[in-house]
Amino acid sequence: MATTTHHTEILHEYTAHFQDANGTSYTVRAHGDHRDDGMWEGWLEFQPVDGGLPRRTGRETTQPNRESLVYWASGLEPIYFEGAFERAG
Length: 89
Known about the structure:
Layout (H helix, E strand, L loop, with lengths): L8 E5 L4 E2 L5 E10 L5 E9 L6 E2 L4 E3 L2 H9 L3 H10 L2
Antiparallel strand pairs: 1-3, 2-3, 3-4, 4-5, 4-6
């Protein structure tokens, strides 16, 4: 059986922090991974600025290549983070 090694990478770290309803600030990063079928998937991670465990969404997008995934990540606006934060576990 063949084993595939995935290399998750940070594609983009946003300069604007996200703040939840409790006032906790998060650094937001877009992550990506190359899938076995050749496609790339992306998700967001919310890391508390003051430390603690991050919250991560499930897959937010699937793109045909890394360049398209980086393009997706670079176009996200802070308003997108509100819904993504709700989806993050």
